[in-house]
Amino acid sequence: MNPNEPAQADINGVFSVPLVIAHHPSPEALNSELRELFLRCTEEGDKHRNPTPFVYRNEALYESNFSLFDWPQPAAQKLREFCLTQLYQTVGELNGYGVDVLQKMHYSLESWFHVTRKGGFFGAHNHPNHSWSGVYCVAHDGDDPASDSGKLVFLNPHATSTMYIDWATKNLKHPFSRSPLMLRLKPGQLVLFPSWLQHEVLPYEGDNLRITVAFNARFRYSGEDVRRHAPTA
């Protein structure tokens, strides 16, 4: 090595946020059933509506109560099975847990749907008292696919990185950029993310519908200390 050349430095990514995207293998029939169910519910007014909304939204967005995955309709139960299967696989892979541990992890859920018409949006928020959240897309059409209409936006959690910006930091490449992550969900797509991660939905500007299902999960472990099952460094 030339002693006059600087030593090569390693660039490492730290403090990463896991975000998982899964796809239902054949969502058409399921999404058709869900769409019919949800539109029927919205026509019944406040019967199925969330009675205590907290996050800022407008009247163009309908939010159901938080018990969707407890509904007896087959479509709701099929979606519950798909979402929970993906969630358990994610938890197992990220924590290094085998089936023996996962079978002793018992969940509690909140689950609901959104039907969004033109102009509907959902303000920035996260989901306290849960560890994992998910959003499943039933429908998103009737707008310009190249626009930001109805995009699910994850806000960059490194907010303090903006306290001082100059030419040495203003154009950092991914994954070090401080830009938000903006996703236009496709029917059958499921996004899983830590519940603490702030996110929002931009205004839907289409002439049809944007329909999604969301859920939050937390877990209780009924076995011995899971640290005994975690891989060692």
Description:
- This protein has 233 residues and is α+β, with helices and mostly antiparallel strands.
- It has a single domain, classed as q2cbj1_9rhob like domain (Jelly Rolls), CATH 2.60.120.
- The protein has three helices and ten strands.
- The strands form two sheets. A six-stranded antiparallel beta sheet has the order 1-8-5-10-3-2, with helices on one face. Strands 4-9-6-7 form a four-stranded antiparallel beta sheet, with no helix packed on it.
- The radius of gyration is 21 Å and the shape is globular.
- The two termini are 32 Å apart.
Outline the fold blueprint:
Elements: E1 20-23, H1 28-43, E2 61-63, H2 74-95, H3 99-102, E3 105-116, E4 122-125, E5 132-140, E6 152-154, E7 181-183, E8 189-194, E9 199-201, E10 210-221
Antiparallel strand pairs: 1-8, 2-3, 3-10, 4-9, 5-8, 5-10, 6-7, 6-9
Helix pairs in contact: 1-2
